[in-house]
Amino acid sequence: MEQRTALVTGANRGLGAAIAKGLAGQGIRVWRGVREGGGAARDVRLDVRDEDSVTAAVRRILDEDGRVDILVNNAGITDGKQAPATADLDVAARVWDTNVLGAWRCAQAVVPGMVAAGYGRIVNIGSTLGSLALMDRPTEPGYRVSKAALNALTRLLAAELAGTGVLVNAASPGWVRTDMSPTATRGPAEGADTPVWLATLPDGGPTGGFFRDREPLAW
């Protein structure tokens, strides 16, 4: 089997690092998108809020490997303890730019190559907090609205790319210990299982879905 190449955004620590490690464990060449730090051989500078940075990162991967088969949109931020009626909308805008437009920019950068190759896997890291069916508490409004929008983007991309060999899905990793949630009970490796599964789906696998623990999750 030919070796696949993956780009994981926000991959220098936490969940992103665990996803990168899980993919590498399956023989995939993994590029870790990092805003700062890094230093591994296939770390690539990537600020998902900056279109030029996204373009340069993808160009570097294509120059060195000639392909991007898998994109995991993991980079994300939260607005913390805000309430919808009083939220700082400048903060919400930064969350939106990272969590939604950042993922969108990255997808736009890699989709043409995936379609040309007839193969691609895009995994958007969502959250149960973005499920409309479960949105009954007014917490983290910027984050929750952004994750609901990311679900919509997942559906739209999947619809556009149906029949091209490119599968697009969203994954909730569960409540995972990261810098945003240091007291969470689920370890990064456990949270990475569903994203890695979706990133390595066989041809004919599901597309346009939202999954947690490899099972469908209510939108």
From TrEMBL:
Top-level taxon in the UniProt lineage = Bacteria
Q: Where is the signal peptide?
A: none
* PANTHER family found in the cross-reference section: BLL7886 PROTEIN (PTHR42760:SF135), SHORT-CHAIN DEHYDROGENASES/REDUCTASES FAMILY MEMBER (PTHR42760)
The entry's family comment says: Belongs to the short-chain dehydrogenases/reductases (SDR) family.
Protein name per UniProt:
SDR family NAD(P)-dependent oxidoreductase
Q: Which organism is it from?
A: Streptomyces purpurascens
